[in-house]
Design a protein that fits this description.
Blueprint: H1 5-15, H2 23-30, H3 34-46, H4 63-73, H5 78-88, H6 90-103, H7 120-130, H8 143-159, H9 171-175, H10 179-196
Length: 221
């Protein structure tokens, strides 16, 4: 059975994002065999059209689809790219972002989900800086003054700051492997105190087992 170019284009349009209509459903709706629809889809893909599998996310696009997306969006500005993504649908948006980032050499950071400008590791260190007793509330007069303060802060952090995440030992003590003996002694003292005054404990004493090496804080270089 012959179909007009207009009918064929309209049916193929239903395969495009954001519709991504499955071939089986489209066949029932249009009265066209699945084999014919699959042939049309293959022909359209060969011509460079974006026709992912139904409900496919970014990982469901073929290499040809991704390459075509990069080529088609390469000359678009931010406004045009946003409109293009809205027109193509969510799968196109996700694929374009991922492929474009890779093309531009942008690598993923340690940012929290959905917060592009927040690095939890840096934020935690900034908080420690600002809550130290010596933090200058009025700021720094010069860049050299700031650098000198940070150098002193790093020394304090490594040698004096007892970090809660590593059982209240200093990063230097952990780095030198001294924490096991220190924590064992604390455990012994706590056990003695509990034996003398059991009424002060409703359960076990504090856990003084060393934190695994893959966790906890590190020294500031």
């Amino acid at each position: 059975m012959a179909y007009s170019p207009e009918r064929k284009a309209a049916v193929i349009g239903k395969m495009l994002p954001p519709n991504n209509m499955p071939l089986g459903r489209l066949a029932k709706e249009e009265g066209i065999s699945v084999a014919t629809l699959a042939k049309w889809r293959a022909e359209a893909r060969a011509k460079g059209q974006f026709l992912p599998e139904a409900n496919a996310g970014p990982e469901g696009w073929t290499s040809a689809d991704k390459l075509a997306a990069v080529i088609e969006t390469a000359s678009l500005n931010a406004v045009e790219l946003g409109e293009y993504c809205r027109r193509r649908g969510i799968p196109m948006k996700g694929t374009t972002m991922k492929v474009t980032m890779e093309r531009l050499g942008v690598t993923a950071s340690f940012s929290r989900p959905r917060v592009s400008n927040d690095n939890p590791f840096s934020e935690a260190l900034f908080r420690t800086c600002k809550y130290t007793p010596g933090w200058p509330t009025r700021g720094f007069a010069t860049i050299d003054e700031a650098r000198a303060w940070v150098q002193g802060f790093a020394t304090w952090y490594n040698t004096q700051h007892r970090h809660s995440a590593i059982r209240f030992v200093t990063p230097d003590q952990r780095h030198r492997g001294e924490e096991k003996a220190l924590l064992a002694e604390r455990h012994r003292v706590y056990q003695m105190a509990r034996a003398v005054h059991p009424e002060r404990w409703s359960g076990q004493t504090r856990d003084w087992q060393p934190i695994p090496l893959c966790q906890g804080s590190c020294r500031l270089l």
